[in-house]
Amino acid sequence: MTDSHVMTVLGPVAPEALGPTLIHEHVLFDLSVYHRQLVTRGEAALPDEPLGMEHLYLVRHNVPALLDNTIQRDLDVATTELAHYKRLGGGTVVDVTSTGLAPDPAGLAEIARRTGLHLVAGTGYYIGISHPPELAAKSAEQVAEEMLRDFTDGFPGSDVRAGVIGEIGTSEPLTPTEAVVLRASGMVQAQTGAAMVVHPDSTHRSYEPIARTLDLLERAGARLDKVVISHCDDRLHVAPEAFTRLAALGPSLAFDTFGKQHYYPHRGRQYPSDQQRIDLLARLVPDLTDALVLAHDVCYKTDQVAWGGDGFGHLPRNILPRLRAVGVSENAIHRMTVENPRRLLPLTPR
Fold first, then answer.
1. Residue percentage of the chain with pLDDT more than 70
2. φ/ψ (deg, to 5) at 256
3. Helix, strand, coil shares of the chain as percentages rounded to 5?
4. Domain coordinates of the chain in residue numbers?
5. What is the pTM for the complete model shown?
6. Most distant CA pair in the chain: distance in Å?
7. Half-sphere exposure (CA, 13 Å, Cβ side) for 306?
8. How far apart are CA 340 and CA 252, in angstroms?
9. What is the pLDDT of residue 2?
10. What pLDDT sits at residue 43?
11. How far apart are CA 338 and CA 333, in angstroms?
12. How far is CA 333 from the centre of its chain?
């Protein structure tokens, strides 16, 4: 294996072996932090019971209201869900389930063995409200050392090694621990050359707040050409001019919430429709193809086929044909799904 390789949960692979890649997903997850947030605010939360058909009319409009909808830890379910993507020609899934979302590196390794997919695991911390209390006492250097060990020695209790940084969460305003984690992430990226996946706050709906995050990362040593700004299709569909300005700074911009079309009452915010995403992507492709990457951000049970969602196969099954129908070329689709991830994911230390 050359120095420039992609670290998967089963070991290093050549970039050429990745195939079509989903840049931002959650194979096993626990997003109960959002359910707890509803409870803390005294907002509507459903009884603690298993997700069933009788809940769908409610959770489709308030996805974290039912605790069970926020947690999927079953390896058999995850294997079946990923098989949809594999059958449609999928090659690689980047799992950005960082600390705060209950990462399970050993579980990912078992799922990779079962499915034959390349799975890449992320290290780091999600948004501030999910941070463990002990993080507040750590310096950026201490957090960086901890994250670096995930690349060199493997995650605690596992020989599975990290392949990306992220997803790294941000809020508005940035919390003190988020600032520490961002600085640590920049330090680690400077040493490893790993891709970094950043989660912008749901209020970051213009160029300026995301540019501030990129500036902080760059000052900490990050290479912006190895940074992925997630959820741009959701955050920035109201400010399409921001895509060109952000791309000029160097990062990749992810359209990674395909399939999510619901309303968040606790945020007063509606996801764009898939048609809106497709129309915007088609407008951006002529100038920004090399900056664009795609995924679904599967992170609730209702995102998955077993519970009526579109699942990990939504892009190849439904979205890519629709992109072709509006004139997006095969070359552009190949670059967004294969070539751009293949450029981002190799570990390329300076």
1. 99
2. -130, 25
3. 50, 15, 35
4. 9-344
5. 0.97
6. 54
7. 16
8. 9
9. 47
10. 79
11. 8
12. 19
State the Cα–Cα distance between residues 138 and 141, nearest whole angstrom. Answer: 8
Supply 211's token pair.
Answer: 């540019």
| Domain 9-344: which CATH number of 3.20.20.140, 3.10.450.50, 3.20.20.60, 3.30.390.50 | 3.20.20.140
Q: Return d(Cα 346, Cα 46) in angstroms, integer.
A: 43
Reported as type and span, the H/E element at residue 36 is helix 32-41
Identity of the amino acid at 282: A
Residue with the bigger pLDDT between 124 and 349: it is 124
Q: What is the pLDDT of residue 3?
A: 63
- Kindly indicate the confidence band of residue 149, based on its pLDDT and cuts at 50, 70 and 90: very high
pLDDT score recorded for residue 266: 66
Which residue type sits at 321?
P
C-alpha pair distances (Å), 17 with each of 5, 8, 103, 123, 338: 10, 11, 25, 22, 10
Please provide the DSSP assignment of 242-271 as one string: HHHHHHTTS-EEEE--TT---EETTTTEEP
Rounded to 5°, angle at Cα 68 from 66 and 72: 140
CA-nearest of 248, 244, 170, 237 to 209 is 170
| Rounded average pLDDT over 182-192 | 98
* Alpha-carbon 230 to chain mean position: 6
* Average pLDDT of the chain, as a whole number: 96
Asked if residue 248 lies in contact with residue 336, where contact means CB atoms within 8 angstroms, the answer is no
- Rounded CA separation 197/194 (Å): 10
Question: C-alpha dihedral over 232, 279, 95, 135, to 10 degrees?
Answer: 10
Cα separation, 302 vs 309, in Å, equals 5
Structure confidence by residue, pLDDT tens digits, 245-301: 999 999 999 999 999 988 877 677 789 999 999 999 999 999 999 999 999 999 999
Residue 94 identity (one-letter amino acid) = V
* Model confidence at 44: pLDDT above 80: no
Quick check: bond before 265 cis, omega within 30? no
The residues facing 166 across adjacent strands are 197
